[in-house]
Write a structure and sequence with these properties.
By secondary structure, the protein is mostly helical. The protein has helices at residues 3-12, 26-34, 47-58, 90-94, 142-178, 182-185, 188-221, and strands spanning 76-80, 100-101, 109-110, 130-134. Strand 2 (100-101) and strand 3 form a beta hairpin.
Length: 222
């Protein structure tokens, strides 16, 4: 595996981590390109400029953006209507770069400077209280704007990598915690009951939060 080439392609990609290319992030997409599993024109946020740069790096002819993966958009960021947020954490779990902060049952906030505009937080929100708005326009010369965008992409890459590492550690730790001796794991019905109770508890929490939010919304309308 040509790790150096993967990093070079990843450095060209916009680090939106949106998954429109068909992969879970920019680095996995770069790896797929090197492995011959993906084409160079599957990244809408990177647009034609990104395609040309990757083509030049690989010494091949550029090609038009494959619009089956989407079309380019102006820079956008997520914003949460905090009066309707129920603190379900679904958006936090969906954000690939940890650009949303908050805790269960507490208001969530988007770190606009770190938001990549991937839109992955919108669909999971049960309250439909996340909107995508135009990002603040950057000022300065063409070179200064390009530098600012590259710096943001570099931060997004780092935040994505740190999140991936944290999730990997959690998975390992979780496996160790849930591991049980053979004799105890034979009680399948007990484990099933416990899992069902956990699911019911989660549903009850979300339902209660939805009810509170509905009450707030009714009050606001009045």
């Amino acid at each position: 595996m040509n790790e150096s080439l993967i990093k070079q392609i990843d450095a060209i990609l916009p680090q939106t981590q949106c998954g429109q290319c068909g992969y879970s992030g920019c680095e996995p997409y770069a790896k797929a390109i090197v492995e011959g599993k993906a084409d160079i024109n599957q990244c809408p946020p990177g647009d034609e400029d990104g395609i040309r740069k990757i083509a030049a790096l690989l010494g091949i002819e550029p090609k038009p953006l494959n619009i089956r993966h989407g079309t380019p958009k102006p820079r956008i960021v997520a914003v949460i209507d905090e009066t309707l947020c129920i603190g379900c954490t679904f958006c936090i779990q969906a954000c690939p770069v940890d650009a949303i902060v908050g805790a269960a049952k507490h208001m969530h906030t988007v770190l606009s400077e770190e938001c990549t505009g991937c839109e992955l937080c919108v669909t999971p929100c049960p309250m439909d209280c996340i909107d995508m708005i135009p990002a603040t326009a950057l000022s300065g010369s063409t070179e200064e704007i390009a530098t600012a965008l590259q710096q943001k992409a570099n931060r997004a890459r780092l935040r994505y990598q740190l999140r991936q590492q944290r999730q990997a550690r959690k998975k390992i730790t979780g496996n160790k915690i849930t591991a049980r001796p053979p004799l105890k794991t034979q009680n399948q019905s007990s484990e099933s009951d416990s899992s069902e109770k956990t699911n019911h508890r989660k549903q009850a929490i979300v339902q209660a939060a939805l009810s509170r939010a509905a009450a707030i919304r009714t009050t606001v309308i009045k």
